[in-house]
Amino acid sequence: MRSVLSAYNLGELSPTAELLASELLTNAHLHTGGPYALHIRPTESGQLRVGVWDKDPAIPSGLGAGFVHGAMPHGASEGGRGLGLVRAYADSWGASLLGEPGGGKVLWAECGWRDPARPDTRT
Question: Which InterPro entries match (predicted)?
Fold first, then answer.
């Protein structure tokens, strides 16, 4: 992740992008039967989108409808905090079901960047 972001002069996003990628990949590894893949791309709105595709069409409650913003699991459990961290550190997040049967889903999160060649239009 660091090498890719550095090559595109987005190295300042490494800590946040690495956290988002790590949590989304861990979620796919632990909760799906595989395979899964990481996708990284800048968006036209000036964000870096980190997405993880997997074949399981189930949207985790932490990113789907009905989640409680800022809710974290109770107790001393070491698990169950990943999507809460994604929500806390991402500028936006979500899930997209892929249309074809067996297409799975993409869980994604975005963090901000600014292209010096383009004016910052975010408010």
Answer: Anti-sigma-factor_SerPK, HATPase_C_sf
Place of tokens 């004016």: 119
Q: Give the model confidence (pLDDT) of 32-85 as tens digits.
A: 988 999 999 988 887 899 999 999 988 887 765 444 444 444 454 455 578 888
Quote the radius of gyration of the chain (alpha carbons, Å): 15
| Contact of 27 with 82, CB cutoff 8 Å | yes
pTM recorded for the entire structure: 0.77
pLDDT band for position 116 (cuts 50, 70, 90): low
Q: d(Cα 75, Cα 60) in Å, to the nearest integer?
A: 20
Q: Which H or E run includes 31?
A: helix 14-31
pLDDT in tens, 16-27: 999 999 999 999
Q: What are phi and psi of 56, to 5 degrees?
A: -80, 120
Which 3-state string (H, E, C) describes 59-77? CCCCCCCCCCCCCCCCCCC
Burial of residue 50 (number of CB atoms within 10 Å: 0-12, 13-18, 19+) = buried
